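Appendix B. Chain record.
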Amino acid sequence: MKLEFIGPASILENGDVSYPAMLDGKPLKCTFSYEALQDLDVDGVETNALQLFKNHQLKLLSIAEQKILNGHAIEGAIHLFSHDLVLD
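Structure tokens predicted for this chain:
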């Protein structure tokens, strides 16, 4: 399985962040819910979804990668929600 996150990040109409990837040469849409992004901002100071994503990009992509490797990519998409986060 070959996974490559290609970006760039963009905000969707519903406030979530999309980050394109390629999985075995096919497009894969990775979506991160705004609520999940907010959960990573423990001080609650940042409200811009794109900035929240950028602040935690490595952690978010790592979690997305694990979901993909565990077979949770369905119909060319993976969605990351608050319950997917493992907060330290």
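Further analysis of this model is presented in Appendix C.
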